[in-house]
Each structure stands twice: as C-alpha cells, then as structure tokens.
User: Fold this.
Amino acid sequence: MYEQERINPYDKAGDKKQLVAAMFDHIAPTYDTLNHRMSWNIDRYWRKKSILQLHDSQPERILDIATGTGDFAILAAKMLHPKSVIGADISEGMMNIAKQKVEKEGLQDIITFQLEDCKTLSFDDNSFDAVTSSFGIRNFADLDKSLTEICRVLKPGGKLSIVELSHPTSFPMKQLFKVYSHVMLPIYGQLISKEKGANKYLRKTIEAFPQGEQMTAILQKAGFNEVAFKRMTFGICTMYIAKK
Assistant:
C-alpha cells in the first residue's frame, strides 16, 4: 500500500476532504486564470495530449474525476463526441463555474456534474468506457482507495487517462523548477488568487505526489494493466494511461 503523506490546506488539522473542498470553493473564481497563466497556457496542450490517448477507443460514456471547473470534461466532449460526460468533484464552487462554461458551450445535454467523493463513488460497477482526470488526483485523501474505486466503475477494457503536475528529475530543469515553484509560483499565485495558504498547499502536493514508475506500480495495484506514462515539457507534467 502506498504510504501517502498527509498534506492539508492552510496547515490545519481536520478532515482533508472537507479542507480541500473549502479551499477550492474559495479559489474557484480565480482558478482558471491561475492555472493557465502559471503554466503559460501549456496546460491546454497537456490536456489535449491526454484526450488524444482515448481517440481510438471512441468512449461513449466518460467520467471526469476531480473535474474542477470542467475544462477537461468540455475538451473530452468536443474531441471525442461521447454520448455523455459526467464531471465529478468534491467542490461545489468549482462545479458551479463548470456548469456556466458548459451552458456557454451549449453542451449541457452531454455534460452533467455530480458531487462525489472518489473514495466512495456512487456509480455502479462497469459504468464507464473511459475515466479522465487532470491536475486533481494529487489532492485525493486516499489515493489507493480512490484508484480502486475508479477501476471498479470502469468497464473491462476501458481506459484511464490522467495528466498530473510533477517535478523534473534531470539537471538543469530540476533546479530551475525548484526555484520557480518555491519563489516565483507563490508570488504569482498570491497576486492572482490572494490565497497564500492554497498556493503553498498546491506546491507541496506536487512535490509529495508519486510519479513515474512509483505511480505506475500504484495503478497496477489498484487493478489496472497496460500502464504507461510519459513525461511532458521537461518533466513538469506527466501523463498516465492505463486499461482495466
């Protein structure tokens, strides 16, 4: 079992799910601006690369875990043309913004949202052809249980496509990224979101989250096979693809 480091927002004790939900509710209005500007909009490219991994399988029913403000769900609907996409998250504040974006895109007949805890998903076994997640799984309170639940609701042969922030491991990007994440990112984040505690939490989760071969082993233990990963943009982001 993966021994997950416990990192709570604002350095507070308490239930991680509730604290994370409260944090994302609070930063929801500025989240998109923060995400795009702090990655120089490269996050859009990472999402597209992840969605393209599902193109050949043409999934009809997709679950987007930790959907946030819905960018990944909207992109999946546009690129893959499924019958339905369900975005699941613990933050109602984030999903309220996602719903507005979906209505603006005219995709409300395809994309719906549900308040869900990934450790105990309400969906039946073998419900989805594909599951996606972008920049959200590092916030899970229990990674092992959450991935096992994702595997449960995925149909046999279905695919999981994850894109998550990571830290570079090679010189000189490792050193440059450390300076950026510890010095520039907090300053930039503070200017946009005015939320010092949240920015510190997000940086810590990137540093603590398992990546590469370690994450591959965790996915395999959760029930997935044909697990592969690809580091993108010098290792700042990692894409994981797996099949049930």
